[in-house]
Records
---
Amino acid sequence: MVEVAIGTPHGLRINADDADLDMLAVQLTFPDFVASKSVVGTSYSSSGSNQLVIYFRDLADHWRGWAGVKRYRSLEGDLSLDATHDGHVIIRAQLRNNLDPSNWVAQGEFQLEPGEELSRVITDLELALA
């Protein structure tokens, strides 16, 4: 299992199992809580690229900034990422358990540096989801 840490010390952790890349173990880690869930989220584009990798590449390609919000949603909507840019990449992450009767939702915000840190995230995701 390969872990990708996105945001430190708080943020998103994604664990990919080589045996089943269609399921990701996702964890949001913040000072007040830790939330975990298995997420169906490794959808691929027609070119064979992983949608999560494409999302982070797009953030890196626009490292100088963009207007509005750039969004990622997993296939079943249980992982959502909304990114804005104010000199740093600010990501609002939401993890929800739609199948549980409690329908819990956990969310938090973390930042990434638009240069080297974001490039490392892309490299780690590419290795984990290949």
---
Amino acid sequence: MSSEEEVSSDTPETGSDGSDDGSTGSSPTKGPDEVFCSSCGNVIKEDAEICPDCGVRQKRATTVEKNPGLAAAASFLWTGLGQVYNGQIGKGIGFIVLQMVNVLLMFVLIGLITFPLTWIYGIYDAYKTAEKINEGKIEP
């Protein structure tokens, strides 16, 4: 190997003054108000919603976790209450109104089928929604 090839092999790792310029071979360091991007690993500001390098939205830590069991129990007691607990007020009110309609439909017997189906689905939905909120897949 010639001396020119040896010299050119260390040039990318060091700057003109011989110091490491951080372009290759070194890991990025983060400051106290910085974090690593969940996708590309570059250092970004802690409060950044989107990484400026790769454009991926950063997952925020949820400060309030929802208890799926409590959400299901609330919907068990009153259809729609579990959705309200999860922060989905409109959805919860929709379930409550639907159950009132189902009570009226009991007079024509179809409510005997639709009432328990809506009730069971409300319990299931409240539980699954609380799990998704805790996983960060949806926001309350």
---
Amino acid sequence: MNNIRAVVTNIEGNVQLHRISLDAGGEHFVVITLELADEYSIGADVHITFKSTHVALAKEMSGEVSISNRIPCRVVSVKKSPVLTEVLLDSRAGRFYCLTTTAAAERLDLREGDLVTALMKASDLYLSRVADQADTAGTNTVNKERSHKS
């Protein structure tokens, strides 16, 4: 799982549905959630967690898309296997992985140093509170997924 530290900047919604805006290193993220605990408030330190399989990539993207989270990134590494390709990305928010098909990676001609846009649906991101003061001083982390199931 990918894990990015962020700060809640805005909360919209009602009892049943919430749209949460976050800042992660200067990048804007949006999370849609059905439930929101009272401990999540503007200014709260949180982790944004998401699967590498929930990250799509675009190269030379232009025009509008309905996906809220569009994060400019640089490709750090590309590890191909016959079916899947793991792409390590670096952004202002931190480093995270995208797991895509090798056919898609080849179609995009992904290489180290390429500039890409990572796309993540707001409903595919999850929030958790930063546990303690020591954790808030840490950097963003990437936890390799054991299973590649979506």
---
Amino acid sequence: MAAGVGRPESFALMVMRQPEVLHKVPVVIDRDDYTAAQLAALITQDPVLAADVIKLVNSAGHKLGSQEVTSL
């Protein structure tokens, strides 16, 4: 492997959470007029949160059918 190039798992550990995004999610959800696009735009500001949501949606308990979700 070339110098400076690590495994994807190592890169994922370097991505920082964006706590301000996490705190905004319930504020948006509590509004009566929010859209799925607005919520997705907010969640994608935090790559770790977005990955967690995609992982949850694709888990056995939440998956609908055989189609895999790959983006918000």
